[in-house]
Amino acid sequence: MEQTDVAHIAKGVRGRPRSEAVERSIVEGVLKMIEDGVPLADLSIERIARTAGVGKATIYRRWSGKEELFVDILRGVDDPQPELAGDSMRGDLITCLDHLRRRGVNMRSSALLHNVFAQMKSLPKLWEAYHATVVEPQRRVLIGVLRRGVENGELRADVDIVLANDLFVGPMLVRTVLRSDAPLDEDLAERIVDTVLAGLRPPG
Hints:
It is built from ten helices and no strands. The protein is mostly helical. Helix 5 packs parallel to helix 8, helix 6 packs antiparallel against helix 10 (188-200) and helix 8 (124-151) packs across helix 9 (161-178). The longest helix is centred in the last third of the chain and has 28 residues, at 124-151. The protein is elongated, with a radius of gyration of 19 Å.
């Protein structure tokens, strides 16, 4: 990630222009340690402060603890939810899934996500916060797209919307989180959507 990207994360996290340089050094310190393979559980506030060259009080003035700091960084690394054209369910599904694919291609966001998933049990508060602030909003958007598909006849009326959401998102999550060897081709979102839709479209 370029220096300007880190600045964007720091500014987006707290929105205090006067402390942007300080927050950038904290964010960069955490990201660098994660890239180097340091587990989130081993990143104490003291270690983060030492790496960033700031005092612990400087961090605590901005975040209540490391879980809140990590969630802000995860949210900052993740690209904003893309605008949906709304012309067709298929097109909007492809846009949503390609957003997940690009997150998997981004090395820093991918490393962070792998770290979070690997430590869900040891850091349950982090997972709960990440799920509430990142996962659930994305899920609501995609379920909304599917509901619209049922209403306009692009999906069968008897389709289980929640299960359909899992059918679309599941293959992309497997490739971006569980299978580091799996290719993330540019047309992957389109192939997933068309494969699942083949079984969910109305007859004829």
